[in-house]
Amino acid sequence: MADFIHEDFLLESDSARELYHKYAEPMPIVDYHCHLPPVSVARDERYDNISQVWLTGDHYKWRAMRSNGISERLCTGDASGWEKFEAFANTMPYLLRNPIFHWSHMELKRYFGVSELLTPASAKRIYDQCNEAMKSPEFSVRGIIRKSGVVLIGTTDDPIDNLEHHKAFAAEKDTGFQMAPSWRPDRGMFIEQTASWNKWVDKLAAAANVEIRNFASYMEAFDKRHEYFNNNGCRSSDHGLETVYAVDYTQPEIEAIFLKARTGQTPTAEEVLKFKSAMLYEWGVMDYKRGWVKQFHLGAMRNNNTRMFKSLGPDTGFDSVADLETARPVARLLDRLDQNGTLAKTILYNLNPAHNYVIATMLGNFQDGSAPGKMQMGSGWWFLDQAEGMRWQIECLSQLGLLRRFVGMLTDSRSFLSYPRHEYFRRLLCTILGSDMEKGLIPNDMEWVGAMVRDICYNNAATYFGFKLPVING
Question: Using CA of residue 123, residue 125, residue 129, residue 134, what is the dihedral sign?
């Protein structure tokens, strides 16, 4: 039987095949947003077996396994690496038409040279083959990154982080790729969780060496940490929110709400919204001041299963798509920043496909000619980083914006083996454009369309964020 993952996988026309193999495939990867642990990169860690690097932390696979009746012990519990791998292999025959079936086989093929399908019958053979391959030096964390063609990874970091692992890595020579921190300050606005928020504010005060007495000194502490991140290579921020917060407030109100929370009193729901609205504005001003890109990941309703949240904590596969108002608060926040001349480059990632046109049309309101593609509709992410979700995002952006200015794919992943998602995106992009060429919907000019593919796959991201990366035009 022919290999399932073959060289023309997902490429549906001659034009698509030429676009991919000539223009997309050779391009490096700028993975500008992910959740990989910087400590693992700095220490160039190794793994004992494939389950450690492939199944640990992968809530996509856990959700599929749970749906197949697999016990939690074999997902997140104390089962052995082989037991977990076998349980996932037993799920694979039930994953047809689920993107995990594609991703998993691409990962096995690209990293371990495994061409046969993962099934209960082949599981032990494949497990042993992968574990044998992992004994090679190229299967260290850095080896995997270099093997994937990655030239930059953007991690996700708390403002109180001292960035010691980023600094240690940056001090080395000839690592073959860059690692940049990204600023994720969301914990600083969760005053409804009053006790944990106060503990975090104390840590912020210590990290910034600022006595936080009031809201003004709170902002001073954030600005000092923002500058610290900037001096250590940070060029973007990121927020993971259900929706944007942008209700009206006054500065005296925010001062009073801050002091109320700081003294251990739980703010009202209205006060929480006002405080979060103020924080998003203030952080936006900081991002603009230092020329950063601002990213919003919108539309996730997190930790829906209380029992499992108490047992396993966040990011373990119990999240879903939210259905909250999007247009009005996004417009208000962007408009506030724009009116004051402090609207940074911005990427909005949408998780609810019903809001795609809302996001795409909203961004068009704030393109101001200061930078090409200043306001970006982010790639399909989380539940939408599969073929259909990517198509929806590409089609929407094509109709309402400039697809060629798109900064392309990211992994948004906690796994070092997830880089084939870039390949998956690139193959799909080339199939869409190749089909348009053969239908006469865009010019049948391979160099013209090929240059567009290069830009979306690499060049746009390389330049948009301000990283020191070369542009590749041939």
Answer: positive
State percent of the chain over pLDDT 70. 100
Tally of CA atoms within 13 A in the half-sphere of 362 that contains its CB: 23
d(CA 233, CA 296): 20
DSSP string for 162-202:
--HHHHHHHTSS--SSEEE--B--GGGG-TTSHHHHHHHHH
Rg (Cα) of the chain, in Å, rounded?
23
**Domains of the chain by range and CATH?**
47-139 (1.10.2020.10), 142-464 (3.20.20.140)
Structure tokens at 332: 């208000």
Per-residue DSSP letter, 157: B
Q: What is the pLDDT of residue 27?
A: 98
pLDDT beyond 80 at 397: yes
Separation of alpha carbons 27 and 214, rounded Å: 49
- What's the burial of 82, exposed, middle or buried (CB within 10 Å: 0-12/13-18/19+)? middle
**CA of 232: how far to CAs of 117, 298, 308, 351, in Å?**
44, 27, 37, 31
Sign of the CA dihedral 38, 42, 44, 49?
Answer: negative
Q: Could you give the CA distance from residue 294 to residue 240 in angstroms, rounded to a whole number?
A: 12
Burial of 417 (0-12, 13-18, 19+ CB in 10 A): buried
3-state helix, strand, coil in the chain (%, to 5): 55, 10, 40
Give whole-number Cα distances, 197 to 111, 193, 202, in Å: 42, 6, 9
Full-model pTM: 0.96
Task: Write out the H or E segment, with its range, that includes residue 153.
Answer: strand 150-154
Reference 45, options 145, 129, 127; nearest CA is: 145
Determine which helix (DSSP H) or strand (DSSP E) holds 357, and give its type and residue range: helix 356-364
